[in-house]
Amino acid sequence: MHNLLDISILNSWILYNLDHHDKQIDRQRFIVAIVESLCAHDVTPNIPVAQQLADGHDVVCLEVKVERDCFVCSDRSADKRSSVGRKRTRYWCSACKVGYHLQCAQRLRHVTDQGLQKRWHIQQQE
Q1: Using CA atoms, how far apart are residues 69 and 72, in angstroms rounded to an integer?
Q2: Residue 48: beta bridge partners?
Q3: Which of 65, 67, 81, 99 is the most buried (most CB within 10 A)?
Q4: Can you tell me the distance from the alpha carbon of 13 to that of 30, in angstroms, rounded to the nearest whole number?
Q5: Virtual CA dihedral for 35, 9, 64, 56, nearest 10 degrees?
Q6: Tell me, what's the pLDDT at 53?
Q7: Are 99 and 89 in contact (CB under 8 A)?
Q8: What is the model's pLDDT at position 78?
Q9: Residue 84 near residue 75, CB atoms below 8 Å
Q10: Which helix (H) or strand (E) holds 17?
Q11: pLDDT tens-digit series, residues 59-113
Q12: Contact at 8 Å (CB) between 108 and 120?
């Protein structure tokens, strides 16, 4: 993957220098300029920190670098070579303490166990 990125940056640098005969720069300065331009902008999606689901549970966006397994599509027991495997997300239900992707939310529903008075998520059958 890094090789693909290196080749892309090299090609971009060559094209830049071909287009800017009067302002040619060396490759290292070009890479530094790319990194600085990418770091200068906040690339965090503008999603509200908490959204309330229809049944009163909150969808919370976790701090940067904090992730949970998606309750719907993550499968730790799957073979590492399979396409299923472990799927991580930054969103979770604060009441039930389970993570899930926003696109997986429609496949969840909340259930209350009257004996335990505990709420949790279960997957709906498709």
Answers
A1: 9
A2: none
A3: 99
A4: 7
A5: 130
A6: 58
A7: yes
A8: 65
A9: yes
A10: helix 2-19
A11: 778 877 788 888 888 877 766 655 667 788 888 777 777 888 877 776 766 655 5
A12: no
Q: Which of 96, 13, 107 is nearest to 60 (CA)?
A: 96
Tokens standing for 123?
């997957």
For residue 54, the model assigns a pLDDT of 54
Tokens 């499968």 sit at which residue? 75
CA-closest candidate to residue 91, choices 47, 125, 121: 47
Q: Give the model confidence (pLDDT) of 45-59 as tens digits.
A: 554 545 555 556 677
**pTM exceeding the 0.70 threshold for the entire prediction:** no
Helices (H) and strands (E) in the chain, counts: 2, 8
What DSSP designation does 44 have? S
The answer to which of 6-10, 24-28, 68-72 has the lowest mean pLDDT is 68-72
Q: Is 85 left (phi over 0), alpha (psi -120 to 50) or beta?
A: left
Q: How far apart are the first and last CA of the chain?
A: 36
Q: How far, in Å, CA of 125 to CA of 85, rounded?
A: 20
